[in-house]
Amino acid sequence: MPEPLSPGATIGIIGGGQLGRMLSVAAARLGFKTCILEPGGDCPASHVANFHLQAEYDDEQALERFADAVDVITYEFENIPTASLDLLETKCPIRPGREALRVSQDRLTEKKFLRDLGLATAPFAAVSDADGLKAALDEIGAPAILKTRRFGYDGKGQARLKGLEDADSALEAMAGAEAILEGFVDFSHEVSVIAARGPGGEVACFDPGENVHRDGILRTTSVPARLTAGQRTDAVLLAAKILNALDYVGVMGVELFVTNQGLIVNEIAPRVHNSGHWTQNGCTVDQFEQHIRAVAGWPLGDGQRHADVVMENLIGDDMDRVPQLAKEADTALHLYGKAETRPGRKMGHVNRILR
Amino acid sequence: MPEPLSPGATIGIIGGGQLGRMLSVAAARLGFKTCILEPGGDCPASHVANFHLQAEYDDEQALERFADAVDVITYEFENIPTASLDLLETKCPIRPGREALRVSQDRLTEKKFLRDLGLATAPFAAVSDADGLKAALDEIGAPAILKTRRFGYDGKGQARLKGLEDADSALEAMAGAEAILEGFVDFSHEVSVIAARGPGGEVACFDPGENVHRDGILRTTSVPARLTAGQRTDAVLLAAKILNALDYVGVMGVELFVTNQGLIVNEIAPRVHNSGHWTQNGCTVDQFEQHIRAVAGWPLGDGQRHADVVMENLIGDDMDRVPQLAKEADTALHLYGKAETRPGRKMGHVNRILR
Fold first, then answer.
1. Most CB contacts within 10 A, which of A112, A192, A305, B97?
2. How close is the nearest chain B Cα to the Cα of A201, in Å?
3. What is the mean pLDDT of residues A5-28?
């Protein structure tokens, strides 16, 4: 096991959005410096980081400088070019490791990985072309949802099919990309487990949160989630199983459907997760510090929750509500410093603390 | 009353130590940018600020650039050169305002201000030379403590006198500076009130904390403090009286001695205060965000405390304890990113949350 990083060490973060921003603040709280690799200027993370290396994710010279400047590399998004990772890992440890990225970068690989672990998933089949889509629909039935295998987020790169009649338009939405057809799951609600694992194999989970989406974007996460004691235990054990199988180091978000037949894994994200933002005001060590602790080889926080919290994302024009939200007692504002408000853009969130 | 600042505005902070660092993080959380004015390189606040203007506090060109770059100016320490403030305030609002700085920069002015408000202080007398010291000792009695009127902190610029026989050495310790002799107060313990006032005159106080010093440096602050309900009310009313008298905008630390004859004001600090660090883990809006809210003209947090907390400063070699402290449940670490550990130097603090 490697030595824990000492305060003063530099943590490299690939991606400069709000997750990188909140990771940087958490790293600073533990005395670490941060270096952000992100092509955009004036990005949210750059406001609170020591260094911002403004370069494309496949700029080899920049990648070398980045790896030389930092003591460990982590990331806020999973779609990092493979060639870049190949280059970086010759120079500096990357946490979470390559296996977690390989699995989660591709929806088909991820589903197979979960199935091979004995976990329940939605029915799925690979789709490369029109014949494949017809065969997949025969196998899985309709309605179903066609998704690109890679590079999807917040509902992008997805198309719903009521039946074979939607096949052409759905395939068109894939724009030639390899896809996966997923059957619908009859679930009552979605929960997620924010789980962490350290380099020594210790695992700590936060209490599962209950998620509500609108237009494919997370709107609220509430803790505690509506779960039986048995489901709660299942959720945590299942998350731990995934982390152990990947020899994972860091925080992972595991989204689960709650059904009458038990918990079904929707997807995993090898990073801090929007549905874990409530921990900032519900736990002594939040998901961001937990991730930094894990990648730095520090002891993990115990994940204990000391308040009920409802996290609400502020999306687009929700920013107009900030003056009113600032007046609410027990409401913690977290804004991301984005210069431009756009519809569907995550601008910040509030954590409402219920005591 | 001025318009509240909108997210995206820039807050200028004079001073780049740990207070500036934690103010910067709080400002970022509300979507503000920050610009630090501080002569030292690699200072704690620069790690988490958007901009660091590295210049002396009396560098006129730098001051002009600073004032032009920001929407409001605040500070983390009170000993800012008067000429610099004169220049800055022609270009940009300074909050808290000049009157608070004028009063608190000089121990004698501060004591007179408090006495004129009808508040109890330690007995005091101005001392300019050996004759004046003898007269002051005659008036106040011994033991007593001689302090420079300006530029003292953490026990520096102070000398204790058991009697007239210590007069020469005490005067020598002042190095020719104007001084004030203060009588000792027979107090059972010290508490402090962290109070905030907005531009509209609204006041919000955090629950008083109980302070323990060692070698002239704050070691711990515990909430709740040992106070009767009546003392608690007195403390808060007294702090509000001070803020109102100064037409104050921002957070102030008010140190009080608890005696059998009631509360005696020790000193005031026109800024966020070490004894308010517990609010980071005890309140939804902590003292740093409260200060930013006040100077930005936003609604103040209500100051409500939701946990008992013991704040402990990590001083010098206390940094060696960090690996052990990181293992403690319900202990929040806050490190300042200082490159060099020195005896007596504040390197960080922990908040232990007692539920």
1. A192
2. 16
3. 98
Helix ranges, B152-222 (H): 167-174
Nearest-CA distance from B327 to chain A in Å?
Answer: 6
Q: How far apart are CA A229 and CA A237, in angstroms?
A: 12
Cβ–Cβ < 8 Å for B145, B90? no
Interface test with B, best of A47, A298, A349 (most B CBs within 10 A): A47
Which of B33, B43, B46, B47 to mutate to probe the A interface, most A CBs <10 Å?
Answer: B47
> Residue B31's pLDDT is what?
98
Compare CB distances from B339 to A8, A29, A281 and report the shortest one's residue.
A8
> Among B139, B163, B159, B132, which residue's Cα sits nearest to residue B148?
B159
Beta pairing partners, B265: B121, B256
| A154: confidence class by pLDDT, cuts 50, 70, 90 | low
Residue of A297, A251, A290, A299 whose CA lies nearest to A6:
A297
Confirm whether A331 is domain-assigned.
Answer: yes
Average per-residue pLDDT for chain A: 96
Number of domains forming the structure of chain B: 3
| Cβ within 8 Å of A, B 243-302 | 281, 284-285, 293, 298-299, 301-302
- Verify whether the Cβ–Cβ distance A330 to B7 is below 8 Å: no
pLDDT score for B1: 63
Distance from CA of A33 to the nearest CA of B (A): 7
Taking CB atoms and an 8 Å limit, are A281 and B284 in contact across chains? yes
Domain holding B150, by residue range, is 123-183
Task: Please give the pLDDT value at position B233.
Answer: 96
- Does the pLDDT value for residue A252 go beyond 70? yes
Q: What is the CATH number of the domain that holds B145?
A: 3.30.1490.20
Percent of chain A with pLDDT over 90: 94
Q: Which of A131, A165, A183 is the last residue of a domain?
A: A183
pLDDT at A157: 83
In a shared domain, residues A47 and A178? no
- The yes-or-no verdict on residue B264 having pLDDT over 90 is yes
At a CB cut-off of 8 Å and minimum separation 6, what does A219 contact?
A: A212, A213, A312, A313, A315
CB proximity A224 to B under 8 Å: no
Note whether B160 and B199 are same-domain residues. no
ipTM above 0.90, yes or no: yes
Residue B102 pLDDT greater than 90, yes or no: yes
Residue A91 burial class via C-beta count within 10 angstroms: exposed 0-12, middle 13-18, buried 19 and up? middle
Q: What is the pLDDT of residues B266-277, one digit of tens each?
A: 999 999 999 999
